[in-house]
Each structure stands twice: as C-alpha cells, then as structure tokens.
Amino acid sequence: MAETVFAPWDDPNEKPLIRFQNVTKRFGEFVAIDDLTLDIFEKEFFALLGPSGCGKTTMMRMLAGFETVSEGSIELAGQDIAAVPPNKRAVNMMFQSYALFPHLSVYENIAFGLRRGNMPKHDLDARVTEMLKLTRLEKFARRKPHQISGGQRQRVALARSLAKAPKLLLLDEPLGALDAKLRQATQFELMDIQEKTGTTFVIVTHDQEEAMTVASRVAVMDEGRVMQVATPERIYEAPESVYVADFIGDVNIVSGQSTPMGEDRYHISWTEGQQPLVAASDRPFTDGQSCHLAVRPEKIAISAERPPNVDNAVQGTVLDIAYLGNLSTYYVELPGGQIIKSQTANTRRISRRSFTWEDTVWVSWTATAGVLLAQ
Amino acid sequence: MQRFALIAIPYAWLLALFLIPFVIVFKISLSDIALAIPPYTPTLSDGVGPFFSALDFENFAFLASDDLYWKAYVSSLRIAAISTILTLLVGYPIAYAMAHAPEEWRPTLMMLVILPFWTSFLIRVYAWMGILSQEGFLNQFLLWAGLIDAPLTILNTTTAVYIGIVYTYVPFMILPIFAALDRLDGSLIEAAEDLGCSRLQAFWLVTIPLSKNGIIAGSFLVFIPALGEFVIPSLLGGSGTLMIGKVLWEEFFNNRDWPVASAVAVILLLILIIPIVLFQRNQQRQAEEEA
Amino acid sequence: MNRLSWFNVTSLTLGFAFLYLPMVILVLYSFNESKLVTVWAGFSTKWYGELLQNEAFLDAAWVTIKVAVLSSTFATVLGTMAAYVLVRGGRFLGRTLFSGMIYAPLVMPEVITGLSLLLLFIGIGLDRGVLTIVLAHTTFSMCYVSVVVSSRLMTFDRSLEEAALDLGCSSFDAFRLVTLPIIAPAVISGWLLAFTLSLDDLVIASFTAGPSATTLPIKIFSAVRLGVSPEINALSTIMIGIVTVGVISASLISKRNSLRQQRDEQAAARTA
Fold first, then answer.
1. What pTM did the predictor assign?
2. How many Å from the N-terminal Cα to the C-terminal Cα in chain B?
3. Most confident of the ranges A83-92, C34-43, C131-140
4. CATH assignment of A250-373, among 3.90.180.10, 2.30.42.10, 1.20.1090.10, 2.40.50.140
5. What is the CATH number of domain A8-243?
6. What are the C-alpha distances in Å from C262 to residues A372, B107, C208, C269?
C-alpha cells in the first residue's frame, strides 16, 4: 500500500484547526481583509504570501488577538475566538523583530511564557532545557539577546514562542532579518522543528521562494483577498490567474482569443499574420473568448533551426541576454513586438554559447507547457 | 478600570493644579482690590449671584490707562526679540563648529553644552554680577589691557540683561541647530561647490536653508521664556529695565495688588499664545517632514 | 569632517570660554581671602567654614532637598503615567486638553505658574509651607518627566509588549515586567531632571513658600540682591561641583554601557 500523503484539505471529513468565515477587517475606510474564507488544518505548515499591504500581517494579528474582526468569525478548533484576549489564546507568535526582551537572558526569555502559567520550577527548567536543546542554544542560555548573533536570536524567538506548546504558532516574516545563506539553512531547520513538534505553523512572508520551500500549502494574497490556495507545486504549475502566475516566479504571458479544437485543445490567435498557438486546457473556453497563455521561461526552448514535431514554434530576434551564471535568459522579440523569455541551463562554458544579440532564432514549446487562463 | 485610573490620576492632578489655578487668575483679574484677606473682592463667600455681577474689566482698563504697563510689555517684547537675535548670532557658529568637529568629539561637546542646564539658573545669572560690576572682573581686565580709562557701567543696565539672557539661553539655541546641522549631508555642500558656489555662497544657499528648522525652533525656545523672565532683569537689570515678569512680581509682592497682578498675567499669557502656537506648528510640521 | 578650520576652532574656543569662564571665575573667587569679592587677597577656604556655620542656609538646604526628593518622586510617577497615556492611551475624552496641559507648563512663564498656584492655595485655605512647594514642583516637573519618558516610549518597539501579552501576561504585568525595565533609564533621567528643576526653582517657590519653609534659591536670591558675597560664591561652588561630578559620571556610565553593548554585539556577530 502506498504511503499516505499529508493532504487533510482533500479529506472532506477532516475538521480544520482554524476557520476564517467571511472575515472582513476595516481600518477606518480602508478594507484590509475583504470577505475572506479559509481553512487551515492541524499540523499544516501554511504560508500567507503576498506583497506588502496585501493583508497577510493583519490576518496573523487577528489570529494572535491583536486586531479584532470587523465582520465574520475566526474559529480555533471549533471555537469562536473573538472574545478571547491575546494572553488567553493557545496561540503564540514569533515576531518579525523577534521582540526579545533585552533585559532578560536567553533562558529567561524562553521561560517568560512558562512563568505566567505557575509551572513548578522543576518542570519549567526541564521545558526550557528541552527548548534550548531543540534550537541548539544550550551554550547561550546565560547570554543577553544583544550578546548573540542574528541567527541565534531568531532561534531564541522560535524557542520562546514554542515553549508553551501552542496549538498554533504564527511566524511573521521569521527569516526576513537574516542574510541569504543563513536563510536557506534556517528554512530547513524550521521545517524540521515543525515536524518534530507537530505544531501547526502559519507563516507570513513576501518571499515566494521561502513560501514554496517550507509550506505544505500556500495562500497567495492580494488586496485583502486570497487569490489561490494550493500546494507549492500546484501554485507554480497550475496557477488560476495571471496575478498568481506572475507573482510566483517568472512567466511569459501571451494574450489572444481562443478557438476550441476538441480534446481539451485550443488554438489561440495572438497576432496578425502568425500561426495560432496551440494549448491544452482542462478549463473550458468558448470560441472567441479572450484568454492568456502563461508559459514559464524554462519550458521554452531556443534553437537556430525550426525544431521538428513541436506544437508551437515562432521565429524572432535575440534582444537581450541575461547571464546568471547557472542559467541564461534570452529575451526574444517576436513579430508584433511581443517579448518571450526563454531560459536555458548553462551546461557549457560561456565562450561556446550559440546565440548572440540580433541573431534570428526559433522559440518553441509544447501544447501542455503552458496554462490557459481566463483572467 | 485600570486604564481609567491610569488616565484619571494625572488628568485630575493637572486639572486641579494647572487649569483651575488659571481660571482663578482669570477670575481675580476681573475682581477689585480690597483691604482684606484675601485682598480682593468679591470672593465666593459673597454668594454666586453677586460674585459674578461684581466682576468687571476695570483692571484691564487700568492697565491700558497707565503707560507703565504697556511700556513694560513693549519693552519685554523688544528685549526678548533682540536677545533672541543675539543668541542666534552667538549660538549658530558654536553649533556649526560642533557639527563639523571630529565625530568622536561630538558627544563630549554636546555634554559640555548641556552641562550648564543642570547647574542652577540663579547661580549662572549671579556669576555675571561679579563680572559686570564697576569693580568687576571685566572692568579690571579692560583697564589692565588699557582698552578703557574709566570703568564702564554695565551691571544694572539693559546691556547686562542681554548678556544674561544670551548666556543662560544659548544652549537652547545651540542644541536644535546642532541637531539640524548634524543631519545635514556633507556631500550637499560639496555638490554646491562642484556646481560653482563659493564657500560662502554654499553656506548661504545650502547650509542656512537646511538648518532653518533648527534656527526657528531655537529662536522660539529663547524668545518664549525670555519674554516672561524675572530673575535676569531683577539681578542684572537696573531700574530702567522694564520687563513684565518683574512688574508682575512687584505688583504682587510689593504693592499687594492681586487683581492687577492677575490682569498683568492674563495679558502676558495672551501675548505668549501667538509664539507658542507658532512654535507648536513648526514642531508639528517638522515632525511630519521627518515622518 | 577631517580637520577643523580656524573658524571652527575659534568659534568653539570662544563659545565654550563664554559658557564656562563666568563659572570658573565664580569658583576661583570663592577661595578668595578677602571679603571684597573682586580683589584677590590670597587663597583661603574660610568662606566654606562660615557657610557651614550659617544655620539659615543649612535649614534652607535641608528644606530644598526634602522638597526636591518628594516632588521629583511624585513627578516621576505621575509623569510616567501621563507619558504612557499620551503614547499608548489611544483616544479618550479630552485627550487634546490633556496633552495641552502636559506641554503648556513647559513654556509657561514661571511668574504666571507661581501666581496661579498661590491663588489656588489661598483660595482653598492651604497653609503655605513644604507641602505647597511640593505640590507646585510636582505639577511642573511631571510635565518634563512625561516629555522625557514619552519620547523614549515612542521609539519603544511595541512588539515587545505584544510578545509579553502573547506569552500570557496581563497588560499590567507586561508593563511591570517588560516596559518598565526597558524604559528605566529614561524614567531615571526624568527623575534627575525633576530633582534639579526643583533644586533650582526660585520663582515658583517664592510664590508658594510660606514663612515656615524657605528654600535655598529663595535664600540665595535675597542675599544676592544686596550684591556679590563670598559666602554665596562658596555655596555656588559646592552646587556646581555636585552637578559637574553627577553629570560627568552619569555620562561616563552611559558611555561605558553603550561601549560594552557595542563590543558584545561585535563579538556576537563574529562568533555567528
């Protein structure tokens, strides 16, 4: 029997840990969250992803209890939490600034929440030690926050918020203050700790790579609404809108009119005097409906000669080449002015590159390489 | 409940010991002097009806009729304005030099400017009495240097008041200007010179406009307290130095005319409202610019 | 900037000479043998001896210190509360009036404040003495304290308080365990400011003091009105000395602390 995949969102019998039900949040005139409905399940590592001002931080602060809901309700394990103040919620938060108490040692920071609960001294010590061990901070227990490095501070903040074993841990841009290299290592550490403790994590981030790496599911947000909620693979491979396709990674968008050709195949007429493009789509399109074909640059091949037996091939000239070391991106201008990005892995040395500026080339891709989107 | 107590306690304190006293001053300024204790009439013990009906603007009419008072107001305004300009002329070069001093000196220089703040105001004014008197240090020095033949009379003149105000208030002028100059990006001056300005033009066209906020803030910080100053005119000034703070004090302690003293206070307050409001606006605008 | 121009050197020299020479002269002449303050007749500490014999001055000094300790302590408590209300209180009825009453005493001429408080005390039949001076000083110094504390609170990272709430603190506990320890330096400097304001104050004390309680500035003022006196020079020297030692050691302590913090941070960054 196959290993069960962790996908409680596909199981209609599963009860969500958190349920946002038609939640709206206004700050004066400004609508921060607009009639939002969302379920998050136990043991999920859930990412709220979006540009700044999209409402993701507001959602997190509502979960922590620092903001009230204007309309709708938020349930935690089946209970409406509107009336529960932040200090009584089984929810803990890791702050973007870490918010470590500068006058307390690492040990006392971690013990802070436990001390609020009148925990016996022996148990408290055991729990703090366990947390120190989990985050590899045993050596720094006596230090003050300013005496440790940024990465260590991040781990103290994590240990402190996990010490009370919350049902739900909220992480507000937890890696935002770390440099790129440390960030990657820490992402895996976070996933590891999440798995070990079995806590539900909700992370807020504007970094799509981070969201894709750590999360079991990602909610892409814009202007107070959720644009799409799905696993990282589906978000990348099957975006539901141009916004999501464009927000996650790099994408080529070709706009045109669809003509159904049967068997889920469509022709897209995109510019005068050119062959229509061929695309496959599960979603139905009517004849003459305006649509957008989204194709990732790495799925577009570039060649000097027209490749045989390919669904789509268009001739153009190389406008620009961006050399990124491991990859090169070619900007190819098609007739009519459309620019297509094609990305290839640099498996050979640069001196043997086959194309240069102003070269006439063919860009090609299969019918299933792209996604056909209505909006 | 906690929040209520937190707001209510300081609020009630300020109402009782700041606002209500002003209402009383205002009320007494509308009363008549009486040979009684307290030396004014009516008092609330006369009953509410007669209390209000007996109030009038007599004292203000008196202030307007006796030219001692309006002369004192005008003279206070003039002394405050001139001393503000003098303080600016003394303070600006110091602030400028501090902002251009090596980085590691600046905290020490700052401390040296702030240190006099913590020293008794009275002592700092008093120190000048020994310097400015007929046989004082300054006259002795000038005689010794052969610059004058006979000692100058400086103490108990308006000149001494100017010196006293400049001396005691110059830190108020230095600090905001220093703060403005310290933030000023040095490359702006270089850019101005690169674009053909002379040193002096660059100073006039770039440094001065960019330290404008500091100059305005510093000027108000000197002008407002100087206007109501009492200690400096009474220790350094002479009988010819008219300042409203001193007039109020004498009206109260020497003449025991409380209604007139209160009326003097009310008018001084009205005069002060204008610079205070201007100052507040300037501070607010500055805060907004920075935000 | 790398080097000081002659202009800047001159400004600094003249500027600081102007600020400090009068006090230096005052201090020097306090050690003058002669009663004539302006004629140097040799070194002597006799004026200090006479000062210590002067009961009136010693009494006044005692009253002044008592008033200063009491009023600055009350002012610190009230001023910190007021600062918290201003920065964190949100909206409440009469907020504008409240902040007005915090800022107004800072620019109010002392003669007016003193006069108005005196009229209040007489109106309610309160005998003038230590109590009335303490009330008066508390009122104006609490405004200074609240300005100092509120400027610290404004830069205070609010998420620290939220973190405390998130970890189970009541809002009072969050203030006691997190906010107060962190803003403590500002509260202490507020107290020191209130203390020196009270020590220095002449005008408001003159209005609110009664015959039973005279403060040192009142005593000095009435002595000084008659002219310069070597005893006052000696007294001034002592006061200047105390303040100088106090301010310099306070700034050395804070400098040492910030250096230590810097060093710790650098060390932490290296071991990362």
1. 0.84
2. 34
3. C131-140
4. 2.40.50.140
5. 3.40.50.300
6. 56, 16, 48, 11
Please report the residues numbered 208 through 227 in chain C whose beta carbons come closer than 8 angstroms to any beta carbon of chain B. Answer: 217, 220-221, 224-225, 227
Mean pLDDT for C106-129 is 90
Which residue, A164, A155, A161, A159, is CA-closest to A123?
Answer: A164
Identify the domain boundary among B64, B79, B112: B64
Domain boundary among B64, B91, B106: B64
**Domain tally, chain B:** 2
| Residue B39 shares a structural domain with residue B73 | no
Q: For residue C1, is pLDDT > 50?
A: no
State which residues form the domain around B18. 1-64
For all residues of chain B together, what is the average pLDDT? 87
Distance, CA of A158 to CA of A95 (rounded, Å): 9
pLDDT band at A304 (very low <50, low <70, confident <90, very high): confident
Q: Where are the domains of chain A?
A: 8-243, 250-373
Give CB contacts under 8 A, 24+ apart, made by A79-86: A85/C165, A86/C162, A86/C165, A86/C166
Using beta carbons and an 8 Å cutoff, which residues of A are at the interface with C?
Answer: 64-66, 85-88, 91-93, 95-97, 99, 101-103, 112-113, 116-117, 144, 146-152, 160-161, 164
User: Are the C-beta atoms of A256 and A269 separated by less than 8 Å?
Assistant: yes
Mutate to test the interface with C, among A61, A89, A142, A146 (most CBs of C within 10 A): A146
| pLDDT 10s digits, B7-59 | 999 999 999 999 999 998 988 888 877 655 666 766 666 656 666 666 778 88
**pLDDT for residue C4:** 61
Which residue from C minimizes the CA distance to B112? Answer: C16
- Apex C214 CA angle, C213 and C216, nearest 5: 140
> What chain B residue is nearest to C237 in terms of C-alpha separation?
B123
> Strand A301-303 and strand A360-365: pairing?
antiparallel
**pLDDT higher than threshold 50 for residue A61:** yes
Neighbours of chain C (3+ CB pairs under 8 A): A, B
Q: Are residues B128 and B160 in the same domain?
A: yes
Compare CB distances from A113 to C167, C182, C264 and report the shortest one's residue: C167
The alpha-carbon gap from A42 to the nearest alpha carbon of chain C, in Å, equals 20
- Closest approach of C164 to chain A, Cα-based (Å): 8
